[in-house]
């Protein structure tokens, strides 16, 4: 893959052991960014030169999934545009409260596939560990927006039970860290968890699903790179970007640093009405991803979670978009259009 050399030259240094004091400074930086996120709908709108009256159907004080948006992500939104595709992903609407047939609290069957607290296995050979319950951004289409994270208990006992289950099952070759966002763990507890996974002899791969390299690229520090690069397991980081404007110079630097510490970078997008449901946007997203060293992997149909029905794109439209992408892009830049169906043995390719 070819990165833009001008961006790389400005923003990328090889991953290495953090210098004395540098790790503390970098950690303080990303935590400071996280501490100053937008949590108030009117405040976010004001930062964009908008008023609540500018957004039809706005829910200015959502009672369920609260607003949470990093300021650096909000800075990529277009001021004065209430239909901005990045804003649409995070702005709560009254439509989320409407009951829609087929949309519920557990759309992909997490509960039925739970083997131990926080350990989910839906597919052969791999299991998902919920390493963290929190996220750095609250996406309105999140398929775990109703997940009972409070029932998982403290992470120490939960990790112990999950690790015992993984150790005892020789059919597992891959563990997926998810959540929440696993990269919200500090380096020390993350390193401890990875070392314990690394010591399980039948595991071959570690997969980390994270939106932080996109929405809070400051999290990708030298210290984090050192932690990820120190494991025996082949490590795959799956990021989540839905629109090309989510990717810029800061993400280019973060992703290039990650490539120095891991074997593979992939992207999963969700097809969202009013965000990326046109061929030019999807084409530009694939091009931007590859420029930054990431393979476009999946384009998901939105999971039928309660509150996200207004994002749904019909299958016929989704399939037409994929056909248009195939006509304009090389095959390796065309993501697989998939849907996750509770209880099925793999994702359903459309």
Query: Segments where pLDDT lies below 50 for 5+ residues?
Result: 1-14
> Main beta sheet, described?
10 strands, mixed
The largest beta-sheet arranges its strands as 1-2-3-4-5-6-7-8-9-10
Helix content: 25-40%
Relative strand content: 15-25%
Radius of gyration: 20 Å
CATH classification class: Alpha Beta
Shape: globular
> How many β-strand runs?
10
Corresponding CATH architecture = Alpha-Beta Barrel
Instruction: Say which CATH homologous superfamily is assigned.
Output: Aldolase class I
Any idea how many domains? 1
Content-based structural category: alpha/beta
CATH fold topology:
TIM Barrel
Average pLDDT value? Answer: 93
Please tell me about this protein's structure.
By secondary structure, this protein is of the alpha/beta class. The chain has a single domain, classed as TIM Barrel. The protein contains 12 helices and 10 strands. It has helices at about 5-10, 20-35, 40-45, 70-75, 85-90, 155-165, 185-200, 210-215, 220-230, 250-260, 280-290, 315-330, and strands at about 115, 120-125, 125-130, 175-180, 205-210, 235-240, 265-270, 295-300, 335-340, 350. A 10-stranded mixed beta sheet has the order 1-2-3-4-5-6-7-8-9-10. Strand 8, helix 12 (about 315-330) and strand 9 form a beta-alpha-beta unit. It is globular and about 55 Å long.
């Amino acid at each position: 893959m070819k990165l833009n050399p001008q961006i790389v030259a400005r923003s990328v240094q090889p991953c290495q052991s953090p210098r004395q004091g540098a790790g503390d400074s970098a950690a303080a930086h990303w935590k400071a960014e996280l501490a100053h996120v937008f949590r108030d709908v009117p405040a976010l709108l004001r930062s964009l030169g908008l008023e609540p009256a500018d957004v039809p159907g706005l829910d200015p004080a959502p009672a369920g999934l609260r607003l949470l948006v990093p300021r650096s992500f909000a800075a990529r939104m277009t001021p004065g545009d209430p239909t901005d595709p990045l804003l649409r992903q995070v702005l709560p609407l009254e439509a989320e409260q409407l009951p829609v047939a087929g949309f519920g609290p557990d759309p992909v069957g997490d509960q039925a596939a739970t083997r131990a607290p926080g350990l989910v296995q839906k597919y052969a050979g791999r299991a998902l560990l919920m390493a963290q319950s929190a996220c750095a951004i609250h996406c309105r289409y999140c398929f775990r927006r109703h997940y009972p994270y409070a029932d998982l208990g403290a992470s120490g006992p939960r990790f112990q039970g999950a690790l015992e289950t993984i150790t005892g099952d020789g059919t597992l070759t891959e563990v997926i860290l998810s959540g929440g966002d696993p990269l919200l763990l500090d380096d020390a507890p993350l390193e401890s968890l990875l070392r314990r996974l690394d010591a399980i002899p039948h595991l071959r791969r570690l997969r980390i699903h994270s939106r932080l390299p996109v929405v809070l690229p400051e999290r990708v520090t030298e210290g984090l790179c050192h932690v990820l690069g120190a494991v025996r397991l082949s490590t795959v980081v799956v990021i989540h970007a839905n629109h090309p404007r989510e990717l810029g110079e800061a993400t280019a630097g973060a992703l290039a640093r990650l490539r120095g510490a891991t074997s593979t970078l992939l992207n999963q997008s969700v097809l969202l009405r009013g965000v990326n449901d046109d061929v030019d946007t999807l084409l530009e997203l694939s091009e931007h991803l590859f420029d930054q060293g990431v393979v476009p992997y999946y384009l998901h149909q939105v999971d039928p979670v309660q509150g996200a029905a207004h994002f749904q794109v019909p299958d016929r439209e989704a399939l037409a978009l994929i056909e248009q992408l195939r006509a304009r892009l090389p095959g390796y830049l065309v993501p697989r259009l998939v849907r996750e169906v509770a209880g099925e043995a793999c994702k359903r390719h459309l």
